[in-house]
Amino acid sequence: MPLGHKKAKMLCMVMMLNIFICVLMGLSWKFGNSRGQKKIIVPSQRFWNQKILSKSFWNKEQEHLDFIHNPIINSAVSNDSLIKLPDWLNDTGPLDPCEPDYRVQTQILDYNILPKRFQDFLLHMRCRSYPMLINQPHKCEKKPFLLLVVKSLTPHFDRRQAIRETWGRAGFLSSRTVVTVFLLGSTSSVDSFPDLQEMLEYEAALHKDLLQWDYRDTFFNLTLKEVLFLEWFSKHCPGSQYVLKGDDDVFVNTLRIIDFLKGLSEVEAKDLFIGDVISNASPHRDRKLKYFIPESVFEGQYPQYAGGGGYVLSGELALRLYNISQQVVLYPIDDVYTGMCLKKLGLVPERHSDFRTFGIEEKYRNNPCIHRSLMLVHSQTPQEMLKIWPWIIHPELDCQ
């Protein structure tokens, strides 16, 4: 058969198929309506013009970020200059994210009765850029196997010193390089702190392990401390293989941590994030509690997260957390925020039974072998740290 006849025959078959499909759709529509079914209404507007449903301030801010970072929508907008973006995208607050965002005073109905420190967090929630007062840019030149990162407050000189003399001892430990840094913000008389900056600068010059930023160091700003550290890590310590983050009142069995990490395969290490994991948690609505979050600020359930007392993650994952944190609105509870970032990456923290961020039973607290078997225990005083550390390092202790 000539080629022209073949093409004509194929074209006729395609046309007949299209007519058949149209007839079927028409019959389906007709009989569907006769049974009382509703007509299919074609939207007159694009799907991204729909209004957001959340009434809580944090959720609305997160929906805004999700929209901005949606690759499909961004591609559509960049390829079609006529696309009209929804009006709520214009409600972004001041152009400078570090200017106070006074929208919160009208959009959060109970703003005026929230704790002052909570109000301060909300006003400056969008700011992630603060000058460094004390830096250690060359701290990780030797690319440490384990970076110990300790959240501390300026007046906690005794805690930091106890950590330096025990589990945070930097150098070569168990045939691996260990580096320690302490994270600090600024304290002031507004929060009933004396002016200790000169003493802090002396401590920094002496030990060269302090990182300090010029922001108000409060409980609600612990998340800010987290993202500022991740930024510092990405610039000055990206070669660190593992990171342990903990409070300055935990005791860490550094030898046990290193032995555990040395046994990991490359696959196991890639997405490593272990700690004392909390599941099925929701915001506390009791105003008397430290972790109180009103419905006007956040609605929904928390993702799985590791208790902020201490956890271990790979250096590679820490870099990914920094990048993804730009897509997650700051939240006033730092360990929950880290769980949100992990969820955004499609990951969940792994529970490890040797992390005890809620402490151990009284009868075990003076048992050397119990402490030798655990990785992290919260909380401990400086005196307790100094007592426990010899139990960890003395080889003559028999725990068989």
SSE blueprint:
Layout: H1 3-34, H2 57-68, H3 71-79, H4 104-107, H5 116-123, E1 132-134, E2 146-151, H6 157-165, E3 171-173, E4 176-186, H7 197-207, E5 210-216, H8 222-236, E6 242-247, E7 250-252, H9 254-262, H10 266-270, E8 273-278, E9 305-314, H11 315-325, H12 334-344, E10 350-351, E11 355-356, H13 368-373, E12 376-378, H14 382-393
Parallel strand pairs: 2-4, 2-6, 4-5, 8-10, 11-12
Antiparallel strand pairs: 1-5, 3-4, 6-9, 7-12, 8-9
Helix pairs in contact: 6-14, 8-11, 8-12
Summarize the structure.
This is Hexosyltransferase. The protein is of the alpha/beta class and 400 residues long.
Characterise the protein shown here:
By secondary structure, the protein is an alpha/beta fold. It contains 14 helices and 12 strands. A hairpin with a 2-residue loop joins β3 and β4. α6 runs parallel beside α14, α8 crosses α11 and α8 crosses α12. The radius of gyration is 28 Å and the shape is globular. This is Hexosyltransferase. Its EC number is 2.4.1.-. Its main location: Golgi. It catalyses: a beta-D-galactosyl-(1->4)-N-acetyl-beta-D-glucosaminyl derivative + UDP-N-acetyl-alpha-D-glucosamine = an N-acetyl-beta-D-glucosaminyl-(1->3)-beta-D-galactosyl-(1->4)-N-acetyl-beta-D-glucosaminyl derivative + UDP + H(+).
